[in-house]
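Handout, section 3.2

Students often ask what a structure token actually looks like in practice. Rather than define it abstractly, here is a full record for ABC transporter ATP-binding protein. The first block is the sequence as you would receive it.
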Amino acid sequence: MILIENLKVTYRTAAGPVEALAGVSFAVERGESCAVIGPSGCGKSTLLYVLAGLKQDFEGKVEVAGRTQIALILQHFGLLPWKNVWENVALGLKVRRLPPQEVERRVSFWLKNLGLYELRYLYPAQLSGGQCQRVAIARALVLQPDLLLMDEPFSSLDALTREALQETLLEIWQETRCTIVLVTHSIEEAVFLGQKVVLLSPRPGRVVAVYTHPLVGDKSWRHHPDFHLACTRIRQELSRAGEAKTG
Ligand SMILES: Nc1ncnc2c1ncn2[C@@H]1O[C@H](COP(=O)(O)OP(=O)(O)OP(=O)(O)O)[C@@H](O)[C@H]1O
């Protein structure tokens, strides 16, 4: 689904060039869930922007399978404050000029599926962080994407809401069979959701390691002894990569 080879991104700023990614290579299979983890500023969001086609100024090779419908969920949800829940979720479909009945069908389906239907006339300012997050997810899913790109989707939520939404995301992933690339700061989240976890070094980002977790999708994976081993391994690798950088 995705092939990235030797991806380099440098931002030009008034203070000089800032190298964000310095030769990143990895692949994501169709239907796979991939988590990208690494220290703050190592280029994770930049990587998503490149995959979404929003950043085209890069070196290296980035291939996303042809005719892929891509949906991107940004770090701060990107909801329009002057539109209510229903309108926010319907926005992308209206822009694509889908027939009103189809808009109605898909929006109701996902609002109900994500427990938002009763809130459909409320505005973002009247919602909790977790509800806003679910609206952002609904807005992406109504587009029926083949590829779902998510930038720290659950970062502002309390632990229990976060775990509940992670499980909802897994259910949706299994139902829709879409490919997921998720950026996160949380080691536990990366291991729970990522069949593949790509670990990046401090800026400029390079791939330090790629791990695979075949039990992802099973809700009890979080309580499996191997889960804790996987988290510990990544924690050690992250701190080693940080030390190598500063040392
Ligand atoms: N538009 C920009 N202009 C200049 N520099 C930028 C720009 N966007 C990002 N950068 C720099 O590129 C580097 C990578 O940024 P990016 O947002 O991709 O990192 P990140 O890993 O997602 O960070 P975080 O985990 O803190 O969200 C950072 O050093 C950042 O300051």
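Discussion prompt for tutorial groups: The radius of gyration is 18 Å. How would you have guessed this from the sequence alone?
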